[in-house]
Design goal:
9-stranded parallel β-sheet; 20 strands; about 0% helix
Length: about 250
Amino acid sequence: MINKLSLILVGVLLSTSYVFAQATDDNEIIITQSGDTLELYIDQIGFGNKIGGSDFSSSSTAMTITGSGLSFNFDFIGNQNILFGPVVTDNSDYTLSFTGDSNEVDWNIGYIGSTDDSNLDINVTGDSNTFDFDQGYATSAERLDLDLTLIGGSNVFDIDVESDDVTWDFDITGTSNDINTLQNDGSQSIEFTLDGDNADINIDQLSGSCATGASAACSTPDASIVLDVTSDNAIITIVQKDSSGDS
């Protein structure tokens, strides 16, 4: 199999499979990749680093990655870093680590193509980070295992998952965090642990309907939520519906 990988880096480039950039600010990597079984490791250390473009506007230069059997390991250490762009992959693993404040992520996987069998592990330590993450959309998106560990305060996360057969675990430690998450379509499960005050949490699970003519005992597709909350002044809103479409 052939990997095609194009990297443009303002900083230091060591190889096409491992990138280490260190500067006071404004390291930038723009990626265009097509092909299978790519392993991509990127460390960005400092202030104002970027992967995939300078901002989130429609005119921004975006990450474009397509393929199957891909493996990503991105580490951001510093403040005001950006991850932006579309990814279309099957059978792929993602490890994202952020240590710092005021980082921004606007990332979608499978918005314009198939994205089956995804495994995501996201770790965030810091304050005032903003995440807008989308998995799946109108095309095939099945079997997602998503784990998020967040340590910090005043973070805003909007995570939409439109995929069949989803396991979504998140562990939040910190105050004044704002979390919005949608699971849409198919079998779904969430295990959510919160330790921190003044949280604002919204969880929507829209699991779809039973087949026409199903008995009253019909219970599939299943949706489940397990909560473990230690918090004062938290607001938690949960919507579970046996229908498609956002609530």
